[in-house]
Amino acid sequence: METNKDKRHSIGSEQSNRLHMTAPRTFSNQCHVLNKGSLDWSENGLLAYGSNNLVVIVDTAKVIPVQCFTDHKSLIKKLLWVPFDSVSGASSELVSADCTGDIALWDVCRGRCISWIDSEQAKPVNGLEWVPSSLNNDLLLGVLHAPYTFSVLDVRKGTRLWKKTFCDTINSFAFDPFHLNRIAFLCPECILFFDNFERKTALSGNGRKFYISNTAAGENSTVNEESTRPRTRFKRLMKGLVLGESQPKMDPSLTVSECIQFSYHRALRNHIILMYQHDILILDLYISMTVGVISIDRSFSPFCQMYSCRQRDIIYCLQESGSLSLKLRRKPIANYLMSPMDASPVAVAGNESSSDTYLWYEHRIQSEIIRQTKNSKVLGLAVCPITEKHCAILLSLGKIMFFELEKIMTASNDVSFYLGRRDSHKIALSNIFPSFNDNQGLIPKVRLYTRGMLPSLESTLTVIKYCPPLTSATRAKYKPLLAVGTNSGNIAIFNLATGLMLKEYHVHSHPVRGIEWISQRYIISWSFYSYTLNTKSQVIVTDIQCGQSTPVRINKVDEPYVVFVKVSPLKQYFVIGIKDGPVEIWDLKSMSLLSKMSKRFPPAVCMEWVQCNLSKGKKNSITTTIIEENEIGSKYPEHLLISDITGNLYAFLIDSNSFLKPGTMIEPGILLKPPVYLTCKLNIALQADSDGNLFVWDLSNQMDKQKQHINRLEIRKLKFAPGAGNFRFLCLSSDGIDIFNVFGSPQSIEIISTMKTDKKLQVVDADWASAEHSVIMFNDHSIRVFDLKLTKSYSSIYNYEFDDLLGPPAILDRDLCKMFYFWLSATCKKVYSTELGFNNYELSLIKNACHSLPWTELELCTKIAERSLIVCQSLGLKNEVQFWTVAFHYILAGDDYATSVVPPLDSCYDVVCDCETYRKIQLERVLLHEWKSGDYMHMRRVADKFILLGEKTRALDLLLATNVNDPNYYTDALKACLIATVDSNTANQSTIKLVAANLIAENKIDEGIQLLCMIGKGSQACRYLISYNRWEQAVWLAKCSLSKDDFDTVLKSWADHLLSNRNQEQAVLVLLSLKRFNDVLKILINSDRIYRAALLVLACQQNNISLDSILEKEVCEKLKRELYINGGDGDVVDNLFNENKT
Questions:
Q1: C-alpha–C-alpha distance, residues 263 and 127, integer Å
Q2: Taking every pair of C-alpha atoms in the chain, what is the biggest distance, in angstroms?
Q3: Predicted confidence (pLDDT) per residue in 822-879, tens digit
Q4: Is 898 exposed, middle or buried (0-12, 13-18, 19+ CB in 10 A)?
Q5: Which sign, positive or negative, has the C-alpha torsion 1071, 1076, 1079, 1084?
Q6: Is-cis flag, bond preceding 551, omega within 30?
Q7: Which residue of 370, 485, 616, 805 shows the fewest CB atoms closer than 10 Å?
């Protein structure tokens, strides 16, 4: 009995072997300037961008179009991928928002709109962000509607949870990646902060407003000659944030209103980034001051977008010229010579700035400038959230440039990435640059190179023509090709099955007016400059395989334009019709003129070749006197039908000797308006006039003609569908397109479907792609393939065909991806079987996904933890990447971090770093705060931090530096005396503890904590902080000042607190930093994360880390049960664990 799994496999096999055919889909080209910023890179390697009102999806690995949705009625403003590696995530779901406030949820793989989300706002969407969650079990979307409305939507339910309307205009917003309850809004004059964000409760209060102000005393706000110097300019840009409800006196050199982009720093806690045209400011929110500046010369192209990386403290900067640069944070270097692109104010001649401790970002690399046309603009930058070394730049022409950051292998960095360490792999950004906290890390030379480009047509599209239909003779080499002409004279060849633009040739010097296919290899096209003036028309035959062009009618002078060019059905002749001129008959093989008609013949308005024998009729005396005959050779006879301006049809015959002989003249018998189009199929001819009348002719019986008024104005095209016995035809008019069917005797027509267009979206041209599909070109530069109903121009990607060499995109379902990730990490095999729980259809998907995996790096990995990290990076499992980054670090690290060869974690993992690294990070930050000398309260906070860090000397210096005339001088002097005399060996500790307890009881918690730290009672101070729910301060104090046992106790309590708040991911990372692997396993087992738990057991066994045998057995049994549910063999699990132990 055949199961559903076998059926799915058989269907997939048939699709891989069948002929490439078309399916409803859409091809985008140019973008609108309002699409700026509508670009997003998914975790599993798909890129989505907005092109006018289209949502386009591209596979970034293979650089091929995957999907395109057309249901939006206005321009796309924002796009956002649904998180892949979450409980509520999916493999290919996408959210899009447009200028009218409509928000849609799409299923990319199945090609359908899941739902339209009711935002109850008809305003443009200026911002989309996923609401951060500790559980990842629901999808809540933060939406900013112009000009000042912020709301939270439940994507799955399609409803709005709450809305808040502000008094000020809101330009953008951002969630703090380190704190779930913090959100900031960028206003024209200030930045608005909220610390009480709740997912399902509306924001309360008005938040805290911060204004940009020049805090440097004595600085002149006007730009003088010295402001051009790097050092002076740097000080001038060192702004601060001033809290208040009213705007202070502003420095005109730089204000919030000029800010282009605003975001939280992804690598540093409590930092925000403001981007201006030539400057980027990094502000520390703890001291509300600028602590870093990235500047470029005013003569350079201004910034237009930035991206703050998480894995390393790196900022990608995109300029309006299309150039992409990388800024790497390093420690300020004395006597460092700046590059032209690096306006950072470091010391050049050994001056006093060598002691500066600001955040300095070195200009590390710059990509080449993208060559752009006059009207081309840069619309956006997207960076892969998993690797952070792959980038994409979207241009207004619809072209996408893909860049990759690569390390240049030289003699200095070829042997080792770290001193004494192996350079394992280069999958992500963290594998290219060392951690900022790593003193032994070598900064390698890198380059940003163009990895690929998704092309587009840069000019306006004018005409399309589908290739000759499929026949038995052409089946072996048949491809569904579409020729597209542009206003610049270019001709492009698209494959409608794969969605790829195969070729683009510059053929004409004028706009392409028409294209006809001669065969699957040759096309004939014509162009001219204007419809009103006499011009020299170009008629050219092009070989689409090599681009060779052969002009026809070379020696012609200026004359009326070419009306039509028609190739005969047997590909022996072609006819050229001139406006108010003679019709020319050409031999296709020799490219020579056979015959033409004199000007005494009524001007031909339209013409069509006929594939049947016309009945004998009345000879026309005109046609017998105007033919100039030239004998070329013996060929098959062919018929053609010409219509004049009065609607008369003239039949001609080209006999076997290539003589043009007059046939019959078929009089309409009805008063006709000037005809506009003529088409034939077998014995049926269709003729349309300018009044919207359609005439159906039976060429085998001249008396059988029918007049149908189809109520269409300005009919521009009639075309029969291909296929035997199929008399469906499309009618293109100024107000839309219709599909009719001719049936019965006498002939009648019936309408099958209609598509009306509005003023914004007009049909430019149309053709048949098959008997069941039409291809239509619109004025938004898109080309869409529709079915007969003309309602949908996209399908499931399983119905699409993809290039045989590139293959389909590797998109795996989330559950399948987790299974594949486990077995690949555990076994590193390239071939899998059904005994592992996969069905035949899933095995075919896995086989396709294996082609894009980094097998060289995987085969070099001997450690399961390292291989798991590489696999989850390759498959786009973001949560798994975070887990295995921390797990791999602590599994390999020894108990003594000072002698460990494992590089330290970077600043984004600050709370789970080892204590030595964490204390170093915090001390450097406090030293930076000290360097940013401010008012008394600022220096007081710095002194307090020095006390908690045990830096008594630095604290004394700051306290004794208080001015004698300052009201706080006496208090600071007494505090300095206390610090100098009190230590952990003080005899009267009980008195100090009592005073500290009283201070804390009176809500003077900070002062009480400082007293406890002075006498070495840091653990007791942490307990006080925990009792007041100040977990962040307690963790900070524990990692900076407590012994290992004491700080373990505090962090274990914090992990329990996180679990009670259902923040399992963070709790697991904290427990990993404590090397409590048994506790980690318990959490993973209880949360049904069996694959991660099993890999952790295997990794610990491999590194001789002892685990609870009961937990190991429970993991093994749950994994066997999971395998059994999926139809696998449980013995495979036992063999895997037994082999790993040995």
A1: 12
A2: 132
A3: 999 999 988 888 888 898 888 988 988 898 888 888 888 888 999 999 999 999 899 8
A4: exposed
A5: positive
A6: no
A7: 805
Distance (Å, whole) CA 996 – CA 986:
15
Residue 856: inside a domain: no
What gap in Å lies between CA 404 and CA 385, rounded to an integer?
A: 13
The answer to whether the beta carbons of residues 498 and 483 sit under 8 Å apart is: no
Note whether residue 1028 is domain-resident: yes
Examine the domain organization and report whether 970 and 1003 are in the same domain.
no
Rounded CA separation 545/493 (Å):
10
Backbone phi, psi, residue 886, to 5°: -75, -40
Check if the beta carbon of residue 35 is closer than 8 Å to that of residue 397: no
Q: Which two tokens stand for residue 329?
A: 């944070």
- Considering just the CA atoms, what is the radius of gyration of the chain in Å? 36
In angstroms, the Cα distances linking 990 to 994, 1016, 1020, 1125 are 6, 12, 13, 63
pLDDT per residue as tens digits for the range 53-85: 999 999 999 899 999 999 999 999 999 999 886
For 901, the token pair is 């060869």
State the alpha helices, DSSP H only, in 81-128: none
Nearest to 44 by CA among 819, 799, 839, 852: 852
Spatial contact of 327 and 219, defined as CB atoms under 8 Å apart: no
Q: pLDDT tens, 240-273? A: 666 655 565 555 556 677 889 999 999 999 999 9
At CA 135, angle to CA 131 and CA 136, rounded to 5? Answer: 55
Q: How many domains does the chain have?
A: 2
Tokens coding 587: 């031999």
Q: In terms of C-beta distances under 8 Å and separation of at least 24 residues, what long-range contacts does 743-746 make, across chains too?
A: 745/698, 745/704, 746/698, 746/704, 746/706
Alpha-carbon separation of residue 910 from 312, 364, 1069 (angstroms): 12, 25, 11
Secondary structure (3-state) at 125: strand
Task: Give residue 936's domain range.
Answer: 915-984
Same domain, residue pair 948 and 1013: no
Residue 619 resides in a domain:
no
Q: What is the pLDDT of residue 59?
A: 93
Same domain, 975 and 1010: no
Structural contact between residues 443 and 330, judged by C-beta atoms closer than 8 angstroms: yes
When pLDDT is averaged across residues 1018-1039 and rounded to a whole number, the result is 93
φ and ψ of 199, to 5 deg: -65, -40
Share of the chain above pLDDT 90, in %: 42
Is the separation of the CB atoms in 841 and 4 below 8 Å? Answer: no
**Residue found by looking up tokens 């006197």 in the block:** 625
Q: Hey, is 329 helix, strand or coil?
A: strand
- Cα three-residue angle 695-698-704, rounded to 5 degrees: 80
Q: Is the pTM of this model over 0.85?
A: yes
What residues are paired with 140 via a beta bridge?
Answer: 154
Express each pLDDT in 672-727 by its tens digit.
677 788 888 888 888 888 777 888 888 777 656 677 777 777 888 999 999 888 88
Are 504 and 485 spatial neighbours (Cβ–Cβ below 8 Å)?
no
Both structure tokens of 944:
């307090």
* pLDDT of res. 218: 32
Answer yes or no: do 996 and 962 share one domain.
no
pLDDT tens column, 515-561: 999 998 999 999 998 887 778 889 999 999 999 999 998 877 778 88
Please enumerate in sequence order all residues whose Cβ is within 8 A of that of 1007, keeping only pairs 6 or more positions apart, or say none.
996, 999
Average pLDDT on 644-664 reads 76
479 by DSSP, 3-state: which?
coil
Residue where one domain finishes, among candidates 1064, 1086, 1121: 1064
Helix 1090-1102 to helix 1077-1086 angle (10° resolution) is: 160
The domain boundary residue, chosen from 1046, 1064, 1082 = 1064
Let me know if residue 930 belongs to a domain. Answer: yes
Question: Are residues 1004 and 1044 part of one domain?
Answer: yes
Say if residues 389 and 471 touch (Cβ distance below 8 Å): no
Print burial letters for 1082-1108: b (CB count within 10 Å at least 16), e (below 16): bbbeeeebbbbbbbbbbbbbeeeeebe
Q: Are residues 997 and 980 in the same domain?
A: no
